[in-house]
Amino acid sequence: MAEKEYELLEHTADIGIRVRANNINELFKNTASAMFQILAEPKGPMTHAAEEVPVNLNAGNPEQLFVNWLNELLSLSAAKELIFFDFKIKTLENNRLEALVFGRPLENFQINTEIKAATYHELKLEKTESGWLAEVIFDV
Amino acid sequence: MSELWQGPLEKIDNYRWCIPKSYKPGMRVPGIIYADEKLLKDIRQDKAMEQVANVAFLPGIVKASLAMPDIHWGYGFSIGGVAATDIENGGVISPGGVGFDINCGVRLVRTSLTQEDIKDKLKDIVYALFNDIPSGVGSKGDIRVSAREEKEILVKGSKWAVEQGFGTQDDLECTEENGAMQGADPDAVSERAYERGKAQSGTLGSGNHFLEVQVIDQLYDSELCDAFSLNLGQVMVMIHSGSRGLGFQICDDYVRNLMPCLQKYHISVPDRQLVCAPVESPEGRAYLGAMRCAANYAWANRQCLMHLTRRAFEKIFSTSWEKLGMYLIYDVAHNIAKVEKHEVEGKAKNFCIHRKGATRAFGPGHPALPERYKKTGQPVIIPGDMGRNSYLLVGTQKAMEETFGSTCHGAGRVKSRTAAVRSINVNTLLKELESKGIMVKAHGRSTIVEEAPQAYKDVNDVVDVVHNAGISKRVCRMRPLGVIKG
Hints:
The complex is a heterodimer. By secondary structure, chain A is an alpha+beta fold. Chain A has one domain: 3-Layer(bab) Sandwich (Archease, Possible Chaperone, Chain: A, domain 1). Chain A has two helices and ten strands; from the N terminus they run E-E-H-E-E-H-E-E-E-E-E-E. In chain A, strands 1, 2, 8, 9 and 10 form a five-stranded antiparallel sheet that branches. Chain A has a three-stranded antiparallel sheet with strand order 4-6-5, with helices on one face. A two-stranded antiparallel ribbon of chain A has the order 3-7. In chain A, helix 1 runs parallel beside helix 2. Chain A starts with 5 loop residues before the first strand and ends with a strand. By secondary structure, chain B is an alpha+beta fold. In chain B, the strands form four sheets. In chain B, strands 7, 8, 9, 11, 15, 16, 18 and 19 form an eight-stranded mixed sheet that branches. In chain B, strands 1-2-3-4-5-13-12 form a seven-stranded mixed sheet, with helices on both faces. A two-stranded antiparallel sheet of chain B has the order 6-10. In chain B, strand 12 and strand 13 (about 345-355) form a beta hairpin. Chain B is globular, with a radius of gyration of 21 Å.
């Protein structure tokens, strides 16, 4: 996703975003990318090789899978001290997701915002006439 | 911002407003908002009122879905919400009613220093605190713990820190729950949560968390000020932080784990972030056990932060913290769920009290208070924004009768972070603060702007309401001198 291909939504205390994509795989990828763009920006040339982390998730429905995906990435990012910048979604069907995500160590980035979690409040994940749209509010 | 909230609001008196139960089918109780006309104008600007009505759907909720005057739009619960559920009648517990930053809270430390004593040293103090206290996003501390020790922290809370030499028995007595909730269950905490908590003990974090050097600029009640040994011009330290990544992970884990409970227990809520389970269910008990772990971690964390603060002052003044009179007044949680005994319709029994951006405010004589505060009522600490004021209040009998012993927790946001960044210039803001004698040191310039005074309601208005409504009582007011932000 090109830089800032998402819109910020107004929220008094937290941060909301609206993301569009051609298909649902791309929507998961673009939203994850937007989330990490809000969280951090590169300090300069990368000094570390990218680290590859597998993500496997199941959920009760697509919206839960979407929120779980974002929260799993935040959680992995904090636990492994990585900022993720690329997301390869291998499987996304029947409320199951398999992906490989790529991150670099925190020290390569300027951290701008601590995102505690993605929430279900006013969550949107829908097919539109031209593709897919997601709206999500993060607790910051 | 979103459209003006147009729902029905009935005036009870100058400080209390009611959203009738008839507003939405499914509301089990009305909503009651503590506010005056001035604050209501801001409150109507976002979706907080709708969230007060949504909380009224929770199974077992009694009396009312309550909101404090610092209420603003959150996710699920509004920030500034209080909800009590009747445990023996299927009352639920909701992780969204506590939030991701479990036991986010504040502690207030007094000193025997005056503003005059620190006039020439303020810069040194602020720099020492900024350098010695790890802060910022994902900050990691020098206080590293093993996995076994981390488990111990989750059960012992502040007591763990005191055992390491980071405080005294006296500090424990001056902390809500003595710094450790009973019933914490480390086995209910996921491996990932442990991993996230390991490196973050003794760190401040970011966002609205802060450490402030303040001075008392107004006394309201001479008897109470004497009881707390407080005088005009006295220097105080306030610490605002929470359970860091460990708490975020526990909330996330249990929002996920409790999602199937909606179907299992036939619960209908208008917002999935209000996901919940009966307190007396395996899922509810597991969340409560894990949440208490995060709460204890947060108390240990604030105890460590206070220890680092005392050490920084010792370094600057070349004397012991005891000689500097740096005694803890009190530490309160403002994102928490507790099982507490309260009287409703003349009957005392156990309720699950959710305080999401609200502070416990027990009145005089309450058995949970230490002997030293039995007469005064519980100290309540209200942080404001970095340009205005903060307060020390005490809890009242009226709070026990009306709000399950609860009051407000801060100023409450009025402007979004994005709007603040768009409209406020960081250099102008820092100059303005400097002209008021306030020195700010932060990791990120964006944090300073996002947390600018203009982004908050005036805490003085908020405190006026809780004082005038009688749910707490003003003791003294502080203003900031030095601010350390993440």
